Amino acid sequence: MPEPTTRRGKDTKGRIVELAAGLMYERGVSATSIEDILAASGTGKSQFYHYFSSKEQLIAEVLRHQLQQVLREQSRFPLDTWESISAWFGALVDMQQNQRDYRGCPLGSISSQLLDHGDLLRSQAAEAFAHWESALSGGLRAMQASGLLRDDADPDTLAESTIAVLQGGYLLSSTKRDIRPMRNALAIALSQLRSYAPDVRR
Amino acid sequence: MPEPTTRRGKDTKGRIVELAAGLMYERGVSATSIEDILAASGTGKSQFYHYFSSKEQLIAEVLRHQLQQVLREQSRFPLDTWESISAWFGALVDMQQNQRDYRGCPLGSISSQLLDHGDLLRSQAAEAFAHWESALSGGLRAMQASGLLRDDADPDTLAESTIAVLQGGYLLSSTKRDIRPMRNALAIALSQLRSYAPDVRR
DNA sequence: CGGCGTCTGTACCCCTCGGTACAGTCCGAA
DNA sequence: TTCGGACTGTACCGAGGGGTACAGACGCCG
Fold first, then answer.
1. Alpha-carbon distance B150 to B143, whole Å?
2. Domain covering A1-53 in this structure, CATH number
3. CA of B72 to C1' of D13 (A)
4. What separation in angstroms does the CA of A87 have from each of A92, A137, A173?
5. With contacts defined as CB-CB under 8 Å, which chain B residues touch A188?
6. Which of A15, A46, A107, A151 has its CA 20 to 30 A from that of A101?
7. Cα distance between residue A32 and residue A41, in whole Å
8. Could you give the C-alpha distances from A25 to A3, A174, B32, B58, B79, in angstroms and in order?
9. b/e B19-39 (16+ beta carbons within 10 angstroms → b)
């Protein structure tokens, strides 16, 4: 599929991905039809199939879009001190709370719908999670360098577990329409991380 | 919708729910058509609409079926000692590992697909989780009574958080086709629970 | 101004989906 | 044995899905 070269083309393709991401996040992937997206973005089918070979490819781009959004949001927090990790968790809770209907994780809720959609999309979701984790584990490594985190902690595993706990909190919070399970899950994630701080008397 | 009265009717309806649950677990809810289910169960459409008013109602029954399955599996473990909780976690890991394609939680993977399907199914999924949690919190309360868990621990919150962490582990494990995130998540859940054991020197 | 590749509008196709209609068969009760 | 309700088989329908065909419009190059 040819990447758009002109300003107009880039704009159109970007608008499609943007709108598709929003709709899929709200209504679910399979509940969002191509026609819905075209209607919302004010484009026609010929544009769509000019830029995307199939719905599957669109989903892949939506996944990338969601990852970028999560990373951009996260980049507001350095994640290299306990305070900033704590602030990040607080911001996540606030966002989930303020978004109507407790929609869930922008990345996780879409990823979970791709598990049955073939290996291609599933593995792309796995890569997206890995990227997200590496942003966090980078911060944890910096904390090791600055002595805030013990050297025997494994940043990669810690980051993966943190994301896992976060996702579980999102799921229960969305299902129950209650912020508490997410808040409690993040408290657990934080205490798990903190257990690797030095100076803990035991 | 009339409940089946005869042996043959009960059998047919049960077969439909059973097969539907299996297919939806494997392929996803919206990727499983009524016709798929009928073909797999060897029944016709007239039977289906004789017992179910719509696909939505079938999904509701599938949800109940999955909850029962989870509870039955869990009932093998008393969950009133540290050993049995630990054994339960180990069994969950084994099951996820041995099932091909790391399919995810029989209840959670389906529930997550119902978030966009209207409030009715979403709230039924929430109730299913609540039932699951109460089975666990019951065990925790027994542990308080027998002195294995401190009295200042809140069994309901602990149970909810445990399920949340478990779900997060399932999600990452299924997405990455790797058992480690689930194993690590359960280790965190266990250590979180254990932090409420008495006799911990601190 | 002419032309060519990028971009866009519209109409259409075929298939599958959930759901309905209706006629027929099973089987226990009187 | 006949009656009636529970159960089943089959054909059909309208709607909406993803995807294609093809002609037209834009806009940067010479």
1. 9
2. 1.10.10.60
3. 43
4. 9, 17, 19
5. 161, 165, 188-189, 192
6. A15
7. 13
8. 25, 13, 21, 25, 37
9. bbbbbbbeebbbebebeebbe
Torsion from C-alpha of A63, B30, A172, B95, nearest 10 degrees: -100
Q: Place A132 in a pLDDT band, splitting at 50, 70 and 90.
A: very high
Q: Which two tokens stand for residue B103?
A: 């399919």
Mutation for testing the A interface, residue in B134, B175, B193, B201 having most A CBs under 10 Å = B175
Q: Tell the burial category of B18 from Cβ atoms under 10 Å away from its Cβ (0-12, 13-18, 19+).
A: middle
CATH topology of domain B63-194: Tetracycline Repressor; domain 2 (1.10.357)
Determine which of B112, B131, B158, B191 to mutate to test the interface with A (most A C-beta atoms within 10 Å): B112
Q: Nearest CB to B160: which of A115, A172, A174?
A: A172
**CA B145, CA B168: separation in Å to the nearest integer?**
30
Give the Cα separation of A129 and B99 in Å (integer): 22
Domain ranges, ordered by start, for chain B: 1-53, 63-194
Q: How far apart are CA B66 and CA B21, in angstroms?
A: 7
C-alpha distances in Å from residue A175, one per residue of A168, B111, B125, B185, B197: 11, 8, 7, 20, 30
Checking if the pLDDT of A148 tops 50, the result is: yes
Over chain B (202 residues), what is each successive 10-residue block's mean pLDDT? Answer: 80 95 97 97 95 97 98 97 98 95 96 96 98 98 98 98 98 98 98 91 51
Contact A175 B30 (CB under 8 A): no
